[in-house]
Amino acid sequence: MTIFIAGGTSGIGYALARHYLSKGYCVGICGRDLTKISEKNDENLKAFQADVSDMNAVLSTLHSFLVDKNGLNIFINCAGSYAEDVAGRISYDEAEEMLQTNILGTVNCFEAARKVMKNQKKGSIAVIASVSGILEYENSSLYTKTKRSVLQIADAYRRALKPFGISVTAIAPGYIDTEKLRQLNQNDLRKKPFLTDVETAVSIISEAIEKQKKLIIFPSKMKWMMKSLSLLPSSLLNIIMFRKAKWMKND
Hints:
It comes from Chryseobacterium panacisoli. There is one protein chain. The chain is an alpha/beta fold and about 250 residues long. The chain has one domain: Rossmann fold, CATH 3.40.50.720. The chain has 8 helices and 7 strands; from the N terminus they run βαββαβαβαβααβαα. It has a 7-stranded parallel sheet, with helices on both faces. α1 crosses α6 (about 200-210), α2 packs parallel to α3 (about 90-120) and α3 packs parallel to α4 (about 140-160). The protein is globular. The chain starts with a strand and ends with a helix.
């Protein structure tokens, strides 16, 4: 099996890379900062420096990884950018990075994988979105809107690639106990409900890809909470989510 993971140099992406390496698979990863990689001595792991917002970089990196491989089985896009803007201000640079990484980067990864897998007539593509993306209301954060876009983009590619034997799996997780989440919250995760450990998240994600699920939302308690909230009128949801954001920022 040959696996490529964009945004695979840290967090859930790197955890997935280690999972597939443990099975003896050949794994390629890319990210903007290769110094994040803690283990570099596995001959089955190939690391590349690339930014998903640069289509040419993604495609050339993927081709470099596959130069001596017999096709690509799985492509996973774990790249993402986050900045909170519901209960506070967001800078132009933060907004630009989220748009470039979460939306343009998602399309670039789908396109790169599509170009390779279309000729194979098989393969699996997966993308990490967010459980927040299942909510639609006027004043949702830019991050939530970009992750909702990711889910819509995945649905569009799923329909387009199905005739070519290519499956598309969208992953919408709640809070995962990664180093990045701890950094963003000063190592205080008490206000992160239904927290999932990385090992459990990897198991759920890899199984969903293997079974070619269309959409997986986890953990189940977060899934049903968000689905319940999605039934509320937009005006009420705006108030609830704004107060929730203020509470989480200790305002």
